[in-house]
Structure formats: C-alpha cells, structure tokens
Amino acid sequence: MNVCQKAVCRAVLLCCAFVPVNAQTGAQNNGQAGANGARAVRIDAQNSDSSSIVEKSDWMRYDNGKYIGHVYREVRASIVALGGTGDAKLYKGHFFVMEDTLRDMRSSAKAVNAMVPAQFRMFRDGSIEIDDDKGFPALRDFPVYANKAVEPGEKWTAPGERALDPLNDGAVVVVPFLAEYEYKGIELYNGIPVHRISARYASRYNFARIRPITFTNNYEKGLVQPFTGLSGKHDVDILIRVSNGALLLSRDNLDETFTWADGKTVRFRGFTLVFGQGIQPMNKDAVIAGISPGIEGANGISVSKVDEGIRLTLQDIQFKPDSSELLAGETERLKVIAAALAAVHDRTFLVEGHTAQAGTAGGEQELSVARAKRIVDELCALGIEAGRFIYKGWGSAKPAASNSTEEGRKLNRRVEITIIE
C-alpha cells in the first residue's frame, strides 16, 4: 500500500494506539443469565474524547541468538478530538518515542528518539482512516469487542494489524494478525470496577502482504531493509473501566523473532505495559493568559500556539562556545521560564535544542541534545519535577532564519519549550 494512501482499520485501538475514553459500556442484559448465574454484558465502543496513552516496554534482546542486553522503550501520545461531521470524528496528536531510557521512568527526564505526528478519523462503527500513515498508531484493531452480549468464559476472534519497525531505522512494515479473546468478567482493580479480557495472537509473517511505510527516507535510499520474517506469540491481559469503557491498563507478555533477508535475526522477549486515561483539551488562550504576566518584559522570550501545545522560545540562548555550559547571564531568563512552567499542572514539557549551522551535522546534533538536557537540568534545579520533561536536539536541521547572517544565526541558536497538549 502506498504511503500516501489511507489505511483503513476497524474497532478500538490500543497499545500505542488510540483508546476511546468515552466508550459507552454497561451491563446490557440479553434477557438471560449465563450458565454460571452471571448476567451477560455487552461492551460497546463509540467515538471518544481526548486521550493520553503511555506505553512502557521492558524487553530482553538477542541478536543472532546472542543476548546483548535489555531494551527499555517508552511511547507517549496525546490525542485530541477536533470534532467532525456526520458519522466521522477527527483526531490529531503526536507520538513521542523514547528508547534505552532508565528503568525508573519516573525519576528522570527522557531523551526523545522520534516525534511522529498522527491524524485520523474515527467512525461510529469503530473504524478509522489514518491520513499519511507514518507508523502510529502502531497497533490497530486491538482489542475488538464482541458484537453481542457475553458472559465470563465466552470467546471470539477478530483480525488486527501492527505497524512494526523493530530496529527503529524507518523501515516500517504493517503485519496482519488474528487475535482470540476471552471475557473473564467484572472485578475490582485497586478499588476500580473493571472488565477483564484476555487476548492472544501469534506473530507470523513471511514477506506475504508486505506493506512497507516509512517516516524516514532511509528505506527509499536503500540504506535500510524491512524484515522478511516474523514468528512468536503475545498474551495480553486487558482491563477496561466499567464506568465508561476506557482502558485502565494492559500487559502484553511477548516473545517474537524478526528475520532479515541476509539471515540476521533479532529476538525480543519481555512485556509491554499500556496505561490510558482521559485528558481535558488544553485551553491555550487561558494558559497563555496565565503565564504571560511573568514573561512580559523578559528579554528574548516569546510565547506562541503550535499544534503540539504552547511554545516558549528562548532566542539567542548563550552557552560557552562548543559547550553545554550556560553563561551566567541566562540565569534570570530561566527563572522566568521556571515560574511560568510551575503555574501549569498535569502537562508534559518538551525541550528542544537548536544550533546555528557552524560545524559538522553530527557535532551540531550532539551539541543540541546536550544543551537541551542542560536546560532541563537547570529548570529541575529551579523546582520543576524532572519526570515532566522530555527533550530532543535538532542540531541545525530546523533553522528559524538564514545562517548566512549573524542576525539569522542568533535566531537559530534557540531553545524551545513546549507545553504539550
């Protein structure tokens, strides 16, 4: 399927996918009790409001049969409902991918490996259309609820798809699978009534139905090749809130091996946890009004609305040459930024470092990451919780002005702090 075509999927999306938080769920009586005396219930998924998804993976990796270490991966997504007409509702958001991070994901800021925008429409029957598929949502059509009332012990099957890029090199392949579900019943989880559903599916793929999609140009340049074989299994435990049909938690225990045409194999064994919760859409005007009084008059700090949220830009940020060490004169500006961020609750902050074009691309990239991390460290020292930060460096890849003049280079030497939607 061409990358410019729309991928059409069905049902609820989970696990680094979009999960409805407004799904109408209830014990719709089918008129009879089950054999064990329990009433059958039907879990219905309808269009949802904005949602926040966090996926955390802990896998052991084996290359060609040899253990090479653990992979710690986190993906965060904020998906905002934009409204719609008729049977369709439009959603837009961003996925932030972080890998090789610390085991204690809450204790430190995390470096972002990839930022992937996503936009799709969801219809009343649960199907979606993804515009310009870039690999996210990665797991589509999972879980799929039964189309009738079910009682504990009942099973059903439904197809799904996964967009896979095991080496994170841009060679994404969409692989189909068939999942078997079993409804376990209603129980309490940490005092919250939940539906428990178990699911399992096999990972089978041998280059049939290949559908490569890419969000880098490495595949088109022939620098990377998609995997040609896949085998393994997934066992998933899913908890859905009884009150509103929202995902509370899922745990995917997996063991699968990818194969490439040259005979190389990579095996991942471990688990992936997915947490879901509803979020209130950001009132950007209100947030700007709340932080602007402290920023007004501050030299070289601007505030603007962007798709991701609200961006605070520190222009011509001053570091020592070829270093991440800040000059002393930047302390007051950072205090202003810290005070503004302290007034914003329950949001993640993305810090992005940019350099002027004055050296090698690799050197600029490395320096921009170090400088973004330094800004994070300084803001944490001023009282902002480290776990609220993610950061990324862009080198000189995203200039705000021409690098041919000193004025332009000053504009390009900047740090952007985005309050994520």
Description of the molecule:
The chain is mainly β. The chain has two domains: 7-278; 284-420, OmpA-like domain (60s Ribosomal Protein L30, Chain: A), CATH 3.30.1330. Helices cover 12% and strands 43% of the residues. The protein is built from four helices and 22 strands. It has helices spanning 284-295, 331-342, 361-381, 406-412, and strands at residues 7-9, 25-26, 42-43, 51-63, 66-83, 88-99, 110-111, 114-123, 128-130, 139-140, 155-164, 172-189, 192-205, 212-213, 229-241, 247-259, 265-278, 301-306, 309-315, 349-354, 389-393, 414-420. Strands 1, 4, 5, 6, 8, 9, 10, 11, 12, 13, 14, 15, 16 and 17 form a 14-stranded antiparallel beta sheet that branches. Helix 1 runs antiparallel to helix 2 and helix 2 crosses helix 3. The longest helix is centred in the last third of the chain and has 21 residues, at 361-381. It is globular, with a radius of gyration of 23 Å. The two termini are 31 Å apart. Mean pLDDT is 80; it is low at 1-36 and 101-107.
